[in-house]
């Protein structure tokens, strides 16, 4: 299958996956409320904070193992890939064990201080349900490594479609529990059952699709173990710096400008970033092919994939900026029922951040593709702290306008750090990116014009 067809299939699968995930987040809410009641459901959301946070990350080790596996397999070193798989499975299993022990200790401490006694949910049911749900979330740590099997076999679309089916099964199992009138323990058990059965199938199917393990039996390698652990810590920094940025700027606006300003700040930022989901889908479609070509040392093809990704995402962000500049505030006023007043200046500042975000966020995938997360992690930590400080200083001087400048400063600064560094990893300069990007655009425009002329003829 050609590269274009694989990217197209990845894109379709990514759209489907995003749709199912949005449905997963929204669909069950009315059923929770009608089956359990709003207050009981609110208590359940509070109790699931720990498993929800765990679900956001695989602690970085699964990602590190997966990227190492793809690069080794694509380069032809299949024995090392098998060793990475074996070692990665060991590390992930060890991390699941450690995380489960920490979770049990946390639950024990919460129970000791009678936290569960204050809940509307029966204490025993709450402890059992949360423990089961934590285990279900931890089992998902394996999925990153299993995804690497499909990416290495250049079947990324199949992987995304299977993960969409998994999300749909989770949704169906949860719905069945709620419709039948069962409680929190049964709901948690349904999630554990789905993840256990699916992960087993996902693992076996991935090994069959790849075919590597028919000829190569992996062994635990201490050097590989150290490398995965070191790189895993780098990937772990990504959610850390994002938390510093998003929660830090929100906290600063609250203490400097008050609660109403927080409502405006966060709602404007949320809506101004709504189109970013389109960029994420492009990135999901491009990343597997980019990484495989890098692993094969096909740098010319990899560079072209990166340039096309940048051209696509920036074009989308530019059109999105125009759309939001014209219609965004109108929609915002409808969305907030005219309860919050936002100036044109603040709105334009926030949506301008989308243009910069599109550039550095697309380039950020290179650090994962080459499995070198440390520099991006350092950039993120440093710039998020700078952004929070600027938000504090400028909020004092210029109010919400200053807070907007401080928030957008992260995207602006990261463009000047991430793009040169990402280009260097690709063996090119930012100037080459622009020049060849313009050439790519001309070729696309020329081909499009020829197709239009052919249709007219």
UniProtKB/TrEMBL annotation:
Keywords noted in UniProt: Cell membrane, Membrane, Transmembrane, Transmembrane helix
Main location: membrane
Membrane topology: Multi-pass membrane protein
Keyword set includes Acetylation: no
Record's subcellular location: Cell membrane
TM regions (residue ranges): 21-41, 53-76, 88-113, 125-142, 163-182, 308-332, 344-364, 376-394, 400-419
This protein's record includes keyword Ribosomal protein: no
Cross-referenced InterPro entries: Poly_Biosynth_Transport, Polysacc_synth
Name of protein: Lipopolysaccharide biosynthesis protein
Classification of source organism: Bacteria, Pseudomonadati, Bacteroidota, Flavobacteriia, Flavobacteriales
């Amino acid at each position: 299958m050609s590269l274009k067809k694989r990217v197209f299939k990845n894109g379709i699968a990514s759209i489907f996956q995003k749709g199912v995930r949005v449905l997963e987040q929204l669909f069950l809410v009315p059923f929770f409320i009608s089956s359990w009641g709003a207050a009981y459901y609110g208590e359940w959301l509070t109790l699931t904070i720990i498993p929800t946070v765990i679900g956001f990350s695989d602690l970085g080790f699964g990602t590190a193992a997966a990227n190492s596996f793809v690069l080794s397999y694509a380069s032809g070193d299949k024995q090392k890939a098998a060793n990475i798989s074996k070692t990665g499975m060991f590390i992930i299993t060890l991390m699941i064990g450690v995380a489960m022990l920490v979770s049990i200790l946390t639950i024990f401490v919460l129970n000791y201080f009678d936290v569960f006694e204050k809940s509307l949910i029966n204490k025993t049911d709450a402890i059992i349900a949360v423990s089961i749900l934590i285990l279900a979330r931890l089992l998902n740590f394996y999925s990153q490594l299993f995804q690497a099997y499909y990416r290495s076999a250049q079947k990324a679309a199949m992987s995304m479609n299977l993960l969409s089916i998994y999300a749909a099964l989770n949704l169906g199992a949860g719905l069945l529990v709620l419709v039948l009138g069962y409680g929190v323990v049964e709901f948690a058990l349904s999630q554990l059952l789905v993840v256990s059965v699916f992960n087993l199938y996902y693992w076996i199917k991935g090994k069959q699709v790849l075919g590597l393990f028919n000829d190569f039996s992996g062994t635990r390698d201490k050097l590989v173990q150290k490398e995965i652990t070191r790189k895993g810590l780098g990937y772990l920094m990504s959610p850390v710096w994002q938390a510093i940025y998003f929660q830090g700027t929100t906290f600063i606006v609250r203490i400097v400008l008050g609660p109403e300003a927080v409502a405006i700040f966060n709602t404007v930022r949320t809506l101004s970033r709504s189109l970013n989901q389109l960029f994420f889908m492009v990135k999901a479609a491009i990343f597997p092919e980019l990484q495989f070509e890098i692993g094969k040392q096909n740098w010319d093809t990899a560079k072209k994939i990166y340039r096309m990704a940048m051209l696509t995402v920036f074009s989308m962000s530019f059109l999105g900026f125009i759309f939001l500049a014209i219609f965004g505030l109108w929609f915002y006023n409808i969305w907030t029922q005219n309860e919050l007043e936002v100036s044109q200046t603040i709105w334009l500042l926030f949506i301008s951040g989308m243009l910069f975000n599109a550039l550095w966020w697309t380039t950020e995938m290179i650090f994962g593709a080459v499995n070198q997360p440390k520099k991006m992690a350092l950039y993120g930590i440093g710039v998020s702290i700078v952004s929070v400080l600027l938000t504090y200083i400028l909020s004092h001087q210029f109010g919400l306008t200053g807070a907007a400048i401080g928030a957008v400063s992260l995207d602006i600064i990261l463009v000047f750090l991430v793009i040169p560094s990402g280009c260097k990893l690709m063996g090119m300069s930012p100037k080459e990116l622009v020049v060849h990007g313009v050439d790519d655009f001309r070729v696309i425009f020329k081909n499009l014009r020829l197709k239009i002329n052919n249709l007219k003829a």
